[in-house]
UniProtKB/TrEMBL annotation:
Top EC class for this record: oxidoreductase
Gene Ontology MF terms: metal ion binding; oxoglutarate dehydrogenase (succinyl-transferring) activity; thiamine pyrophosphate binding
GO CC terms: mitochondrial matrix; oxoglutarate dehydrogenase complex
Domain of life: Eukaryota
Family to which this protein belongs: Belongs to the alpha-ketoglutarate dehydrogenase family.
Cofactor: thiamine diphosphate; Mg(2+)
Protein name: 2-oxoglutarate dehydrogenase-like, mitochondrial
Organism: Anser brachyrhynchus (Pink-footed goose)
One GO-annotated biological process of the protein: glycolytic process
Its biological purpose: 2-oxoglutarate dehydrogenase (E1-like) component of the 2-oxoglutarate dehydrogenase multienzyme complex (OGDHC) which mediates the decarboxylation of alpha-ketoglutarate in the tricarboxylic acid cycle. The OGDHC complex catalyzes the overall conversion of 2-oxoglutarate to succinyl-CoA and CO(2) while reducing NAD(+) to NADH. The OGDHC complex is mainly active in the mitochondrion. Involved in the inhibition of cell proliferation and in apoptosis.
UniProt region (Disordered), positions on chain: 1-34
UniProt KW keywords: Calcium, Glycolysis, Magnesium, Metal-binding, Mitochondrion, Oxidoreductase, Thiamine pyrophosphate, Transit peptide
Length: 973
């Protein structure tokens, strides 16, 4: 709309100022020509003032021919009459406003009456109401001020519609017909909520233009062949393994040609790598007919006698495959990510891996790598991670430049009717929050599905934004093949049992129109059946099964050097003092000219510089050193999470902000060397589940990267527990999925309450896979072999494991929590255990008690020991690596103090923290000959108190117990 001060250009008279904008009148229900709908004319007038071409030529001529010197006022009846007289005298079409309103109503609400349900019994939008402004019968013409006698009158078409093709006007009858064909048949379009006119017009042109949805005979034959493969694959599995769960695709067999159409079209536009995520339904079919996994490898998974292979059910497994796309003759790589039964959990993982692949290829616009996510209707509407993932879609450090979402809309969730499963009209309504167009389509109309999928691929390539294809279908069997759906959906399944399969319907159609013959169709079926039988025969040879066939993120060249496995060793991790000093100096500087930082930050940088000069580091500077040394070696570092740029506790400050120039920032870490790997540090959306999944996916792409996710407080990882349980802890065991992601979880009991204290270390320890009762055989390679067999940790090793780090809070500024350069220079390594090195260590036989601990409580214990003058009688040993348990080093410590009491001290409550994990392992080391006593807080339901005084009282209580050398005398073991 024009602002009055902008003015406009009148025909032949040069620019003239726009008149003041009058207050809009009230609408009436009278016909337009009698003076109503002036709001509509008013809007058109102001649009014309801004751009004369934005309105139909009839209105342009009318506004230009207004009486000289008299500004047009849309509220004056005489001017409305003059408009009507002008149109009539020039032989122009009847009131365009009526045609425009008719078009507008169909494109906004036409999807509500589209014929989307293949069964014909449900409404895809859960509402049988037909909007009164949609033309369905002649008697509703009156809504627009029209009558049956107007049906054969010619109306001028709005310039914004494409239903006329090359024609500017059509009869009302033809307008209605074309609108209903476009918006009310087997495709329902939702896009008018998009606030971008160009994007809306692009969609309208794709669907409104007459004749756009036409296919050549060759395209139809290809579609039929793909449907044959999709359906006959499911039929083959049903015949061979009738009593096995396989979560077949029956009822939505069109999904296979739909995915292949998206991939074909995307390959045609330059895509080289497609990363996919999906739930279990139809996964085996996708593996077979989209990814093109060898059928014998799939059939192997049904053989109960085969013990080799992955540790999960077959319909959760992933796959990576490079092949030639037959439609384009271009090389394409396809990766289907493994996924648990937690359905949508894979969504952010796919997005993270896609972002990483784009990043390492320099594909900033997403023209080479893209993602496709498949969803079930109930999960798409019900799972919060879907919303979290959508909200990553346009964030600079998380966008994948558009994802194509395909919803397999079975119109049921397990046994739950959609009317009981969601509050929104469609399961896809969550996509509206990011202005993603939504294309609903009847899955029993294969050609409509193919066209929609082709347009979706073009949309993603053109606008680099998400798009949703909603395949409205049905589920021919129950939730799984053993389930009985008639218990809960009797009427739906009576109709399903009568439903003609889509393959037969489409084949009959092509045979009837002469595109294929019955013989050709039967030969296509026989051909694929023969392929399946031959693969079934080969599958009985158990030698063909190899775990490499189920990798979804292979790391070629990482595990071997010149064809030989890398040596199993833990090399030193220290770096030269010159490098430490250089990194410290950059960390203390602002490497950009004329950049003004906050005065408080200047003090922090000066303190860093002072520490560097004194050859000591605190936690924040040590982190800088670690990241910087990786960058020099060409290893990309990515740190993500809520407030990570500054750090939750204002300790990190990896991104500096100019105090005088908005959005001007500096990342000193990217100014360490001219030739260095990039450092990515990015604040995330306020999400844990989605963002941790994203970073996990990012870490899958390359082993030569350090990917870290930091929780704002360690407690907050609990809302991402699904990712931790299903992907991080068990991913390698289930799916041979290697990953080096690092979780940084601020932890410490400081009286800050149950939601800002504990990172719940007991949960991670409970999921650790080492055996507390197995006494290990020690060797030179014990440390490496132990790390190789565990399920999480990572250091400089020839393999990758996830690492859980319980990071400090108060210790970030504790004067004693610092380390010397001497502990970090060349030749040094990570210390799994830090033994006592004070007075007690020099006279171990005089020591009466050895206190083992980890984390912040060490500094409380050291202070209390000094206050009680017990530095000779009590030794304090720290565990820096808790899992896998350092049996070898602790065995040395225990043997060093043969006459001392053994105490485990922790600040966490007894039913939390580390005690239940370390106690049986200490007992295994001493063969149950010596007790390991507990000192700490009593069991509690909440992780911590929120009362500072209560916190200090409990701290005082367990410190007194820890140094009471008679506390355990006389107690039985």
């Amino acid at each position: 709309r024009a602002v009055a001060a902008r003015g406009s250009r009148d025909a032949g008279n040069g620019p003239r100022p726009a008149p003041p904008r009058p207050s809009p009148p009230l609408r009436t229900s009278e016909p337009f020509l009698s003076g109503s709908n002036s709001n509509y004319v008013e809007e058109m007038y102001y649009a014309w003032l801004e751009n004369p071409k934005s309105v139909h030529k009839s209105w342009d001529l009318f506004f230009r021919n207004t009486n000289a010197g008299q500004a047009y006022d849309p509220h004056l009846p005489d001017q409305l009459e003059r408009k009507a007289s002008f149109l009539q005298s020039h032989g122009l079409a009847q009131t365009p406003s009526k045609a425009e309103k008719l078009v507008e109503d169909h494109l906004i609400r036409g999807h509500h009456v589209a014929q989307l349900d293949p069964l014909g019994i449900l409404d895809a939008d859960l509402d049988s109401f037909v909007p009164s402004d949609l033309i369905t019968t002649i008697d509703k013409l009156g809504f627009y001020g029209l009558h049956e006698s107007d049906l054969d009158k010619v109306f001028q078409l709005p310039t914004t519609t494409f239903i006329g093709g090359n024609e500017n006007s059509l009869s009302l009858r033809e307008i209605i017909k074309r609108l209903e064909n476009t918006y009310c048949q087997h495709i329902g379009l939702e896009f008018m909520f998009i606030n971008d006119v160009e994007q809306c017009q692009w969609i309208r042109q794709k669907f409104e233009t007459p004749g756009v949805m036409k296919f050549t005979n060759e395209e139809k034959r290809t579609l039929l062949a793909r449907l044959v493969r999709s359906m006959r694959f499911e039929d083959f599995l049903a015949r061979k393994w009738s009593s096995e769960k396989r979560f077949g695709l029956e009822g939505c067999e069109v999904m296979i040609p739909a995915l292949k159409t998206i991939i074909d079209k995307s390959s045609e536009m330059g895509i080289e790598y497609v990363i996919m995520g999906m739930p279990h339904r139809g996964r085996l079919n996708v593996l077979a007919n989209v990814i093109r996994k060898e059928l014998e490898q799939i059939f192997c998974q049904f053989d109960p006698k085969l013990e080799a292979g992955s540790g999960d059910v077959k319909y959760h497994l992933g796959m990576y495959h490079e092949r030639i796309n037959r439609a384009t003759n271009k090389k394409i790589t396809l990766s289907l990510m493994a996924n648990p039964s937690h359905l949508e959990a894979v969504d952010p993982v796919v997005q993270g891996k896609t972002k990483a692949e784009q990043f390492y290829r320099g594909d900033t616009a997403g023209k080479k790598v893209m993602s496709i996510l498949l969803h079930g209707d109930a999960a798409f509407a019900g799972q919060g991670v879907v919303y979290e993932t959508f909200h990553l879609s346009d964030l600079p450090s998380y966008t994948t430049n558009g994802t194509i979402h395909v919803v397999v809309n079975n119109q049921i969730g397990f046994t739950t009717d959609p009317r009981m499963a969601r509050s929104s009209p469609y399961p896809t309504d969550v996509a509206r929050v990011v202005n993603a167009p939504i294309f609903h389509v009847n899955a029993d109309d294969p050609e409509a599905v193919m066209y929609v999928c082709s347009v979706a691929a073009e949309w993603r390539n053109t606008f680099n934004k998400d798009v949703v294809v909603d395949l409205v279908c049905y589920r021919r069997r129950g939730h799984n093949e053993m389930d009985e759906p008639m218990f809960t959906q009797p009427l739906m399944y009576k109709q399903i049992h009568k439903q003609v399969p889509v393959l037969k319907k489409y084949a009959d159609k092509l045979i009837a129109d002469g595109t294929v013959t019955l013989q050709e169709f039967e030969e296509e079926i026989a051909k694929y059946d023969r392929i399946c039988e031959e693969a079934y025969t080969r599958s009985k040879d158990n030698k063909i099964l190899h775990i490499k066939h189920w990798l979804d993120s292979p790391w070629p060249g990482f595990f071997n050097v010149d064809g030989e496995p890398k040596s199993m060793s833990c090399p030193p991790t220290g770096i030269s003092e010159d490098l430490l000093t250089h990194i410290g100096n950059v960390a203390s500087s602002v490497p950009v000219k004329d950049f003004k930082i906050h005065s408080g930050l200047s003090r922090i940088l000066r303190a860093r510089l002072e520490m560097t000069k004194n050859r000591v580091v605190d936690w924040a500077l040590a982190e800088y050193m670690a990241f910087g040394s990786f960058l020099k070696e060409g290893i990309h570092v990515r740190l993500s999470g809520q407030d990570v740029e500054r750090g939750t506790f204002s300790h990190r400050h990896h991104v500096l902000h100019d105090q005088e120039v908005d959005k001007r920032t500096c990342v000193p870490m990217n100014h360490l060397w001219e030739q260095q790997a990039p450092y990515t540090v990015c604040n995330s959306s306020l999400s844990e589940y989605g963002v941790l999944g994203f970073e996990l996916g990012f870490a899958m792409a390359s082993p030569n990267a350090l990917v870290c996710w930091e929780a704002q407080f360690g407690d907050f990882h609990n809302t991402a527990q699904c990712i931790i349980d299903q992907f991080i802890s068990s991913g390698q065991a289930k799916w041979v999925r290697h990953n080096g992601i690092v979780l940084l979880l601020p932890h410490g009991m400081e009286g800050m309450g149950p939601e800002h204290s504990s990172a719940r270390p007991e949960r991670f320890l409970q999921m650790s896979n080492d055996d507390s009762d197995a006494y290990p055989e020690f060797s030179e390679q014990f440390e490496v072999s132990q790390l190789y067999e565990c399920n999480w940790i990572v250091i400089l090793l020839p393999f990758r494991k996830p690492l859980i780090v319980l990071t400090p809070k108060s210790l970030l500024r504790h004067p004693e929590a610092k380390s010397s350069f001497d502990e970090m220079v060349s030749g040094t390594t990570f210390q799994r255990v830090i033994p006592e090195n004070g007075l007690a260590a020099h006279a171990p036989h005089e020591v009466k008690r050895v206190i083992f601990c980890t984390g912040k409580v060490y500094y409380d214990l050291v202070k209390e020991r000094k206050n009680q003058d017990l530095e000779k009688q009590v030794a304090i040993t720290r565990l820096e690596q808790i899992s896998p348990f350092p049996f070898d080093l602790l065995k040395e410590e225990l043997e060093k103090y043969p006459g001392a009491d053994l105490v485990w001290c922790q600040e966490e409550h007894k039913n939390s923290g580390y005690y239940d994990y370390v106690k049986p392992r200490f007992r295994t080391i001493v063969n149950h000959t010596r007790p390991i006593w507990y000192v700490g807080r009593e069991p509690a339901a909440a992780a911590a108190t929120g009362n500072k005084n209560t916190h200090l009282v409990s701290l005082r209580r367990f410190l007194d117990t820890a140094f009471n050398l008679e506390a355990f005398e006389g107690k039985t073991f």
